[in-house]
Amino acid sequence: MLQACSITDYPETRQMKLNGNTILITGGASGIGLALTRLLHRNGNKIIVCGRDEGRLAGLKKQLPDVVTYPCDLADEPSLDRFADAVLANHPDLNMLINNAGVQHNFQFTEGRSHGPLIREELDTNLFAPIRLTDRLLPLLLRRNSAAIVNITSALAFAPKKSAAVYCATKSAMRSFTQALRYQLDGSSVAVFEIVPSLVDTRMTHGRGKGKITPDFLAGEAVDAIAMDKHDILIEKTKLLYLLYRFFPSTARRLLKNT
Ligand SMILES: NC(=O)c1ccc[n+]([C@@H]2O[C@H](COP(=O)([O-])OP(=O)(O)OC[C@H]3O[C@@H](n4cnc5c(N)ncnc54)[C@H](OP(=O)(O)O)[C@@H]3O)[C@@H](O)[C@H]2O)c1
Fold it and tell me: Which residues are annotated as catalytic?
């Protein structure tokens, strides 16, 4: 029954081979990104990773010396543009972009203080950066015979929670962007995937939530789905949640409101 849970009518035609690719994973040195880095590296792909924490990038390089790492603050437009320039110059073989990096801030707008820097960081990292990186790298991806853009959204994109209003808004916007981009790229060599994780045990969810899945489990499910050319990849509990949302939206919203 859960198998029938396809979100779009997008024709699934272009099978992506999951080895021998050159893959950029933003935030690929920790959490979900790191699990994707390890798995895709093990499968015989060349991996490029960016992140702000140079210690973490150095740690990754120690474990997997042939992974290419770039320090970059994606929330800073000049830093993002320098990074995109370096990718275009040094990696003309890039054929997959995984927009994974993200931040989540929990705060109430009713607290009676201003939240400017937190709002700006979430919008820039979760929304502007993946869209701008797509914009910069798409001309290169379109020159490849088989390419993909993979965006990581969230179940909170369709049923938001109270404590992270800006985060939920960015994920909802990314979900919409992903769908519209898919329309634009229909018939091209670039497939567009969306991964909708359930709660994953990472730094982002540290100290909250129950029944979390591991980043490795998520990476395995996501990579298998990409290999099978499934474009809307609902992970674990999000399958059920999406069905609930379709048929009983107020129940789904009630369930996630206070998570
Ligand atoms: N964990 C969950 O339950 C869950 C559920 C649904 C969706 N997601 C999504 O999954 C993605 C990965 O999250 P995670 O759970 O793995 O969190 P995480 O462990 O906190 O990892 C976030 C990654 O993003 C990078 N990052 C953050 N801000 C950045 C910036 N300005 N520039 C460059 N890199 C930046 C971080 O690297 P640096 O700190 O080194 O910059 C880190 O590698 C996010 O998009 C998140 O929204 C997570």
Answer: 167
Residue among 39, 127, 150, 200 to mutate when testing ligand 1 (max atoms within 8 A of CB) = 200
pLDDT band at 2 (very low <50, low <70, confident <90, very high): very low
Task: Return the domain boundaries, the chain.
Answer: 16-257
Closest CA to 102 of 195, 225, 38, 185: 195
Global pTM? Answer: 0.94
The rounded Å distance from CA 125 to ligand 1 centre is 9
124 or 209, greater pLDDT: 124
Q: Which of 12-21, 84-93, 163-172 has the lowest mean pLDDT?
A: 12-21
pLDDT score recorded for residue 110:
95
According to CATH, the superfamily of the domain at 16-257 is NAD(P)-binding Rossmann-like Domain (3.40.50.720)
